[in-house]
């Protein structure tokens, strides 16, 4: 078990207090979870898959961060463009019809 998994397990079982190590605190390490699957503990945690076609990075936080930026700077056209792009890219990759529709709606939504 690597350090990232160990900290997660300790937080889950109560062996480690969130006061001693905040659950969202980055460990700043890459840990291989299984053959071809790794997790990077950073500000925007990323799961990495090693596929025959190359590495695939899964960032589940991108939409959330884009939305927060848009709320913080509602009049900023550049932030709005990035937000729309993030949601549009997410919509393209969704397999669920409902998720695609929601992400497309979010991408098209004006401030």
How would you sum up this structure, described in words?
- By secondary structure, this protein is an alpha+beta fold.
- It has 2 domains: 3-58, no CATH class; 62-108, no CATH class.
- Helix content is 46%, strand content 20%.
- It has helices at residues 3-13, 62-72, 77-93, 97-108, and strands at 29-34, 37-41, 46-51, 54-58.
- Strands 1-2-3-4 form a 4-stranded antiparallel sheet, covered by helices on one side.
- Helix 2 packs antiparallel against helix 3 (77-93) and helix 3 runs antiparallel to helix 4.
- The chain is globular.
- The mean pLDDT is 85.
- CA-based shape: globular
Q: Give me the Rg, rounded.
A: 17 Å
Low-confidence stretches: none
- The chain-level structural class is alpha+beta
Number of strands: 4
Strand content: 15-25%
Strand order of the largest sheet: 1-2-3-4
Count of discrete structural domains: 2
Helix content: 40-55%
Can you give the mean pLDDT?
85
Sheet bearing the most strands, described?
A: 4 strands, antiparallel
The arrangement of helices and strands along the chain is HEEEEHHH
User: How many angstroms separate the termini?
Assistant: 44 Å
Count of helix runs: 4
